[in-house]
Amino acid sequence: MKKRPEFTRREFVTASAAGLALGSLSPAMQAGQERSDKYSGRTQTRVMIDTDPGVDDALALLLAMQSPELTIEAITAVAGNVPLELTLPNALRMVEIAQRDDIPVAAGAKGPLLRRLVTATYAHGENGLGGAIFPEPKRKPVPEPAAELIRQTVRKYPGEVTLITIGPLTNIAAALNSDPELAPMVRSLVMMGGSLSGGNITPAAEFNVYVDPEAARIVFQSGIPVTMVGLDVTTKTSLTEEHVRVLEGAHTPVSQAAGTIARNALNHYRERGFPGGPNMHDSLAVAGFLDPSILQFQDYYVDVETTGELTAGETLGYSPNTGDLRRKPGMERMPRTCRFGEPHPRSPALAHRQF
Ligand SMILES: [Ca+2]
User: Fold this and answer.
1) What would the pLDDT profile of 1-51 be if each residue is shown by its tens digit?
2) Is residue 346 domain-resident?
3) pTM (2 decimals)?
4) Which CATH number goes with the domain that contains 235?
5) Distance between terminal CA atoms of the chain?
6) How far apart are CA 280 and CA 236, in angstroms?
7) Residue range 103-148, pLDDT digits in tens
8) Angle value at C-alpha 203, between 199 and 205, nearest 5 degrees
9) How many domains does the chain have?
10) Is 281 a catalytic residue?
């Protein structure tokens, strides 16, 4: 048997996306191999990643930076899971660990457009990485604020840049607000956020949208083609002991860091008395972008509740197949640009994983 010299990206994807997808720990997943192979001849896709690390953000960032399919123009930090004072250095730490000095990191919004910041230290630990400790980053952010860097980059490559958002949408909304001509220049936007089947911070709302519902609404109504990877599908991912051991068992700096973060996250989750393991929301958004065949999609017009006393941040999906729904004026003319994911029942990777 041929000895594997190092931890492959396939294994990293599998572990960091909690078993979703491109990779395989099982010899049964030949189809996964074929899917990955097709990328060898594919042109790189230009992306920017907006993030609030965040345990699953950190793993999603490492996954993205290990993915040769992506040209990452920048990583922009936003307040969310923890304040910007932590998400920014955490993003810088991940770039250093991945040795990606070529990727600029920008500081973004310290809080939502209109509201006070709500954080999720209960889930991500006080430092945002589940308590996993890494040295202070030596890298510094670029001088441009995140919204300005997003604006400049999209304008530099009109029609080419996909925005991958795995935190509250404040930075994206700020960029769109600053430049009314920007939205049509964005190729697409893939978000971890929202839900059409109940929330995780309130019964109605998913965390990223709840933190800044006004920003989310601007994004959903911008006309940018949006792929919404929401709780409908991300709650079907679960970090397991097996995944963590795979990461810990490899000896590259990235897999070791991912293993440390994942181990702390799993322990933190168990200490709070929950069964199973934490959902890998953000990793799934990145994995689903790298390989859309792991998800299946449905078209919806999605709007965001911004004023509800109990329901602020709820995302509502208007299916084009439900003809008698009462819609707002103009909604019918909006392109049906929003989708959400369901695990694909025929995906061989999914067929062999826990969901
Ligand atoms: Ca996040």
Assistant:
1) 344 444 555 555 555 554 443 332 222 223 333 334 444 445 789 999 999
2) no
3) 0.86
4) 3.90.245.10
5) 31
6) 9
7) 999 999 999 999 999 999 888 888 989 888 999 999 999 999 999 9
8) 40
9) 1
10) yes
Q: Which of 124, 251, 281, 352 is catalytic?
A: 281
Amino acid identity, position 350: L
Q: Is residue 154 part of a domain?
A: yes
What are the structure tokens assigned to 261, written together? 């973060």
Centroid of ligand 1 to alpha carbon of 240 (angstroms): 19
Tokens of 299: 């078209």
* 14 in a structural domain: no
What is the Å distance from ligand 1's center to 323 Cα?
Answer: 35
Half-sphere exposure of 25 (CA within 13 A, CB side): 21
Label residue 157 by pLDDT band (50, 70, 90): very high
**108: preceding bond cis by omega (within 30 degrees):** no
Residue 272: give the domain boundaries. Answer: 23-29+44-340
pLDDT higher than threshold 50 for residue 345: no
Residues comprising the chain, all counted:
355
- 82 located within any domain: yes
